[in-house]
Amino acid sequence: MLTKYATFRVLDATCYTCGVSKKDQSTYDASDIKVLKGLEGVRKRPSMYIAGTGTDGYHQLLSEIMDNAVDEALAGFASEILVTLHADGSASVEDNGRGVPVDVMKSEGRSAAEVIYTELHAGGKFEEGAYKVSGGLHGVGASVVNALTDWMIVEVFREGKHYRLEFARGRVTQPVKEVGAAPKGKRGTRVRFLPDATIFEPGMKFEHSRVRKRMREVSFLVAGLKLVLKDEKTSKEETFLDKGGVASFAKALTEGEELLYEKPVLLSGSLDAVELDVGLAHTRGYNSELVTYANMIPTRDGGTHLSGFKTAYTRAINQYAKKAGLVKGDLSPTGDDLLEGVFAVISVKIPQPQFEGQTKGKLLNPEAGSAVSQVVYEKLSEYLEENPRTAKLIYEKALRAAQAREAARKARELVRRANPLESDDLPGKLADCQSEDPAEAELFIVEGDSAGGSAKMGRDRKFQAILPLRGKILNVEKAGLSKALKNAEVRAMVAAIGAGIGGAEDQAHFDIESLRYHKIIIMTDADVDGSHIRTLLLTFFYRYMRPIVEQGYLYVAQPPLYNLKVAKSKKGEYIFNEEALKKELAKVGDKNYELQRFKGLGEMNADQLWETTMDPQNRVLKHVTMEDAVYANLIFESLMGTEVQPRREFIEENARFAQLDV
User: Fold this and answer.
1) Alpha carbon of 449 to those of 24, 453, 469: distances in Å?
2) Are the C-beta atoms of 195 and 61 separated by less than 8 Å?
3) Which domains does the chain carry?
4) Which of 299, 349, 462, 500 could form a disulfide with 275 if both were Cys (CB 3.0 to 4.6 A apart)?
5) pLDDT of 444 higher than 60
6) How far apart (Å, rounded) are the C-alpha atoms in residues 617 and 553?
7) CA–CA separation, 229 vs 251, rounded Å?
8) Residues 460, 529, 615, 627: which is the catalytic one?
């Protein structure tokens, strides 16, 4: 969930509008125009094609190749996909589908396989017939991956023959060549590649847990498809095969929650050319997650299919409640109340999907929304009629959510009246900054009064505000919104941040435009207690101020662990982790040195805290991002939820990585 944030300096006086140095603008002519050939544009501007050059973009390379294999399965030609994380850092994807065409394209004079991996907008997704539905629609996935890899090897098994072609940074190094006979009965495509280290941020590698999560998702979405994950570094091999489809997926998302009823609900149907499957599971808790897919591609920003689901879901339950006489009193559940505790997976298959960008974060097809709305309304209405006891439980749960919402509204009014800027009695008293521009203002949420005092003295008052917290805040994963707002530290944060508060599916009372700081920085000690407090704060922001995370306004400060003074040096060098300390001590050798271990932020004086952790020119921040809501939801529920077993399993699996602080 955390990725490194780097600060940048302006190196020259460049006009970023036109890309020409100021000294050259007077002679701007045709010689300044450059045409990028082939895949040069992809390498020059990778973020136009993938989700940046960090962890997201790195893993998207593997996702693009995996999606091609999944398309073969959706078309009914593949039944198994093997993904291998190799010891050398490369990855491979192999399917038992038809195999990429290797014959020569008359229009190009080259093998179809070579064209697919070297030309943008080339593939079998444009013409009707090759694929009924697919995740790829731009024909750029395979070629973009090829462009951003150090090397790529493609092997094709077709019609009893084994073919091979090789690439290096998007260029063909070995054209298609028949290398022998294919093993008996073997067919399909195997693609192996190593991402180009000159393109991506240093230290990038494929994460087993992230790849595993995606394969597990696909196994739910394509019922009956066998997926195998091999990791050569750990010698682990795991098989994913599920026949329950999205209903099983929805139930899996509720891990750690108490179910309202045992068997998940499956709503399936089609309208015109749109096929859809919706899995539903209701819990007794207040957390919820709505996960959407279009042609097996995760649409993290939702789209028309999500809107159609919400409309139909609310309409079906409200109409049933009126018909069954369940509506009583003046308080009626809203759409957000009805969705509290709901875990749903919405999967649509559509011939010509329209996405927002190459990363396919949002589905735009209006026909998808209409189809989901109509089918979900009809199927859910039937389910409620056939299961009146379950229907009553669902509506009564929504009524309790409405009552809690009303209580939370009253609590919010208390928060508005108890503004920490106007009261000296509230804990966590805010030392605000002078700037009223949110774009330049920073809020440090600091652990403890001692560290808060140093931070207040060391800060730049123009743009840095300090909010000290006393001790550990409430674990909001185990408490409802109403209870959370009774916690003094939570109330202080809500009032200081100034944008309100709301649950994951209820942001009606959270106004991101009213946010007072565009950098909210969690600053805790570099020890076990500090890590616990940081986790509690991250849980709070994820659950009740999620737009702050989604908009990229949340950060984690990285205070140093050591100060190393060699010989007679006055200042010394700050060191942030154990690995760096070992390297520095190796350099020191037999020289005399003094090593200071910072047990907490309170041990630093104001100057040290500014220089190491708060100065924008020197500090290192970790940027908190929403890489994947499903994975984040699972982690928070496992580690911070009410169920003990998931937490115990996590500790048993990861205890070997813990270090003793002496």
Assistant:
1) 54, 6, 7
2) yes
3) 44-240 (3.30.565.10), 245-403 (3.30.230.10), 422-559+622-657 (3.40.50.670)
4) 349
5) yes
6) 19
7) 23
8) 529
Q: Do residues 467 and 430 lie in contact, with contact meaning Cβ atoms separated by under 8 Å?
A: yes
Percent of the chain with pLDDT over 70: 80
- At position 80, the amino acid (one-letter code) is E
The mean per-residue pLDDT over the stretch 128-148 comes to 65
* pTM, to two decimals: 0.61
Q: How far apart are CA 84 and CA 90, in angstroms?
A: 9
How far is Cα 149 from Cα 199, in angstroms, rounded to an integer? Answer: 9
Q: Rounded distance, CA 118 to CA 122, Å?
A: 9
| Cα–Cα distance for residue pair 512/498, rounded to 1 Å | 9
661 noted as active-site residue: no
Of 432, 447, 477, 611, the catalytic one is 447
Interaxial angle between packed helices 366-386 and 304-323, expressed in degrees from 0 to 180 and rounded to the nearest 10: 30
Residue spans of beta strands (DSSP E) within 422-560: 442-447, 464-469, 519-523, 554-557
The answer to whether the CB of 503 falls within 8 A of the CB of 567 is no
Is 67 annotated as catalytic?
Answer: no
Q: Where are the beta strands (DSSP E) in 196-247?
A: 226-231, 236-240
Q: Which of 255, 378, 396, 527 is catalytic?
A: 527
Element (H, E) at 286: none
Give me the residue label for tokens 């989901």: 372
Give me 5's structure tokens.
């944030």
> What's the rounded mean pLDDT across residues 37-47?
78
**More confident: 212 or 639:** 212
Amino acid making up residue 553? Y
* Amino acid identity at 323: K
Beta strands in 124-225 (DSSP E): 149-158, 161-168, 171-181, 188-195
Q: Which helix (H) or strand (E) segment is 13 a member of?
A: none
Partners of residue 181 on adjacent β-strands = 161
User: For the residues 474-489, what does the mean pLDDT come to?
Assistant: 75
Annotated catalytic residue 88? no
CA torsion angle 573 576 578 579 (round to 10): -90
Q: Which of 477, 525, 628, 637 is catalytic?
A: 525
